Amino acid sequence: MTDPDVTRRRFMAHFAGAGLGTTLLPGALWAKMQEAGGEQITADMMSDALALAGLEFDEEEREAMLEAVNDRLSDYEELHELKIPNDISPPFHFSPLVPGMEVDRAVEPFRMSSIPTPRRPSNLEDVAFWSVRRLSELVRSRQVSSVELTEMYLGRLRRYNPLLNCVVTFTDDLAMGQAQQADREIAAGRYRGPLHGMPWGAKDIIAARGYKTTWGSPAYQDQVIDMDASVIEMVREAGAVLVAKLATGELAGGDRWFGGQTMNPWDPTTGSGGSSAGPGSATAAGLVGFSIGTETSGSILGPSSRCGVTGLRPTLGRVSRYGVMALSWTQDRLGPMCRYAEDCALVMRAISRPDGRDLSVQDLPFNWNATLDVRRMRVGYLEEAFEEADDPVLRRLNQQTLDDLRSLGMTLTPIDIPEWSVSVTAHNVEMAVFFDELLRSGRADLLGQQRRADGLRSARLIPAVEYLQSQRARTMMMMRLAKATAGVDVYLVPRGTRRRPPAGGAAPRAAAAAVATTDAPLLP
Questions:
Q1: Closest of 299, 306, 305, 251 to residue 275, by C-alpha
Q2: Cα–Cα distance measured from residue 242 to residue 462, given in angstroms and rounded to the nearest whole number
Q3: Are residues 210 and 290 in the same domain?
Q4: pLDDT digits 0-9 by tens, 239-257
């Protein structure tokens, strides 16, 4: 167990560093009561806590506060005794829409790219980096069976996992059963679509019945959740084959988990970025046909950028989070990570629909038109962000991106995102809610990264009023962002720039991204 004095000092220092010293009243009272070993808040504790928080009240007001605070202690204890599973969210649901924002509800034909039927190469591993679109034609035309494709990807996973450390659990038995079923159905003329028979990997915070869901942490490394997440069910309905549970940073943070660090296949001496570290690494290395990751604040975008794949972080409310470890019910989302942009559309078509479980999911169409005339798109870009990179090579690449888009006939319009200095505390508070039992049980000491435990402890001192006020400020931020991007269909921001929309802001009404990986990573 961690020394309580050291933990408390680190805890208080962490919170003071966040600039919240004047909001410590609830935490100060809690700390005073813990130090005294009592079950009631005393007048002296109240006075000390008020002094620490920089608040002044007269004696009559303090007496009323003291009575009210002690009256609530039993309510808190009852809450602490109630075992609330991680997947239970509050009965109110975050919406990314702001007043006046229009949503396109028109259902349009789903138009995939037209490609000639490819021929099977003599060496099946030559298709490891192919797009799902091309692979699906091999499977549909029965030149390659799902079993063959699954065996090939399982072999690559086992060969390269010692180098990349991207797999938590192999699901061979499940995969071979699903692949055999896919082959039987396709042979009988019951082809389900482009994901049918396609091997894929799931980030290991997504529950799959019969297999461990470790959340990347020693505190949960033997955890088996007896259910399938909605996305597992939906992708299975599309006929895809689950070959592995892929690495996640501990509690969906970073690229380090209880098995070590997940590495970048382009440079195996560096990490793959987090926390969808395994999906990013495995997809880039051609170890799966596609993968599904999750994001709260950069966990799809980060490893996608680092590993050179296309990651689609959908607007919140697009994909069900049922059966997925929760960090923040107002920011968590799931999305595909693929080698080609169109592949993301194929996966999103399968998983973007209500399930009756995650009530934040909207019943909206997911449209894709590979033949769209991109010259009709209104494209904005953050001009300052493209110019701010210190690295001249990065600046040149940023400019090349804009030049390439212009060469396609797109008209680019510079836009400006308003600065926003108010911190949105949703992530910290909501994570502390979901992992309250871990902290109270003392098992937070089992976490491999104690900074995660520090974050849980410090979030206990964010007052409820400030949390809700920050959410109101968040609405203002979303409204400003929506206004700034109202004249464009999509806007471009270089990855890692300081001048980017804050997490949790309004989303554009259309999305487009294209980063096609055409060369193999630097694997031996």
A1: 299
A2: 41
A3: yes
A4: 999 999 999 999 999 999 9
**Residue 35 token pair:** 């130090």
Residues 318 and 447 in one domain: no
In a domain, residue 394? The reply is: no
The total domain count for the chain is 2
Residue 301 maps to a domain: yes
Q: Which amino acid is present at 37?
A: G
pTM: 0.87
Q: Residue 141: is the preceding peptide bond cis (ω within 30°)?
A: no
Residue 400 maps to a domain: no
Q: What is the mean pLDDT of residues 507-515?
A: 31
Domain that holds residue 247: 131-369
Confidence (pLDDT) at 28 = 57
Looking at the domain assignment, is residue 355 inside a domain? yes
Write down the pLDDT at residue 205.
Answer: 99
Domain boundary residue, one of 324, 345, 369: 369
Last residue of a domain, one of 345, 369, 393: 369
Identify the helix (H) or strand (E) that includes residue 426: helix 426-434
**pLDDT confidence of residue 143:** 98
Which structure tokens are listed for 104? 């396109």
143 and 30 in a single domain? The answer is no
* CA 290 to centroid of chain Cα atoms: 16
Output the CA–CA distances (angstroms, integers) from residue 524 to 156, 190, 199, 483, in the order listed: 12, 39, 23, 49
Torsion sign across C-alpha atoms 462, 465, 466, 470: positive
Pairing outcome for strands 333-338 and 490-492: unpaired
| Separation of alpha carbons 201 and 351, rounded Å | 14
List active site positions. Answer: 203, 275, 299
